[in-house]
Amino acid sequence: MIEIGRMCVKIAGRDAGKKCVIVDVIDNKTVLIDGQTRRRKCNVNHIEPLDAVLKIKKGASHSDIAKEFSKLKLEARETKPKKTAAKPVKSRKKKEKAELKEAGKEPKKADKKGDKKK
Amino acid sequence: MPSGRYKSRTLRRVFRRVPSSKIKLQYRKRKPRNAVCGSCGALLKGVPRERPYKMRSMSKSKKRPQRPYAGNLCSRCMRKKIIAIARTGA
């Protein structure tokens, strides 16, 4: 039953109830799955095999699986590309740092402790 | 001696350290009973046992596990149900 291309339903975890395909058999109890679920390693006990078998190659890419799923009128899970918003990076002014070093760290630390107590 | 209204056990008793560093007896309202699986009656894990006002302030992910039928069925019953659906549907 457990073979590459076998359609399954995931029965454990947050992807439970979603359909997936076995992409690779890693060892006799773990497989690599993809489809409506995230592409991930999965315990064989956590999937329920179905009748259908898709024609896919070992380790097929997510786009291939998405095509096969669209034939079955299923939607493969698409992860949105992360937006890397430009965060303002906090940076100290170099001049201040140099000044602090000259003044010595001890008075600064004492000030901080005093602030916390307040 | 507790005053009359505190003599019955409608309120639960809690020992709290008060600001004057003494341990004092306080009275709180009782918590509701544990959440239970709808099909087998087992206690649900990951569902906190709190009064509604506290549940309201909690985030959704803190109130139940992240899986289908979470907060209603235990994981074993959920698994059975999904397997049954998969076998009849396919």
Describe what this molecule looks like in 3D:
The complex is a heterodimer of chains A (118) and B (90). With 118 residues, chain A is of the alpha+beta class. Chain A has 3 helices and 5 strands; from the N terminus they run βββββααα. Chain A has a 5-stranded antiparallel β-sheet with strand order 4-3-2-1-5. In chain A, a hairpin with a 4-residue loop joins strand 2 (19-25) and strand 3 (30-35). Chain B is α+β, with helices and mostly antiparallel strands. Chain B has a domain at 34-90. The A-B interface holds A 9, 11-14, 16-17, 48, 50-52 and B 66-68, 75, 78-79, 82-83, 85-87, 90.
Can you describe this structure in just a few lines?
Chain A has 118 residues and is an alpha+beta fold. Chain A has a domain at 6-71: SH3 type barrels (Roll), CATH 2.30.30.
Q: Helix and strand succession of chain A?
A: EEEEEHHH
Say what the CATH topology of one domain in chain A is: SH3 type barrels
- Number of extended strands of chain A: 5
Order of helices and strands of chain B: EEHHH
Overview features:
heterodimer; A: 118 residues; alpha+beta; SH3 type barrels; five-stranded antiparallel β-sheet; 3 helices; 5 strands; elongated; B: 90 residues; two-stranded antiparallel ribbon
Task: Give the secondary structure arrangement, pairings included.
The complex is a heterodimer of chains A (118) and B (90).
Chain A: E1 6-10, E2 19-25, E3 30-35, E4 40-43, E5 47-53, H1 62-71, H2 94-103, H3 106-117
Antiparallel strand pairs in A: 1-2, 1-5, 2-3, 3-4
Chain B: E1 11-17, E2 23-29, H1 52-57, H2 60-63, H3 75-89
Antiparallel strand pairs in B: 1-2
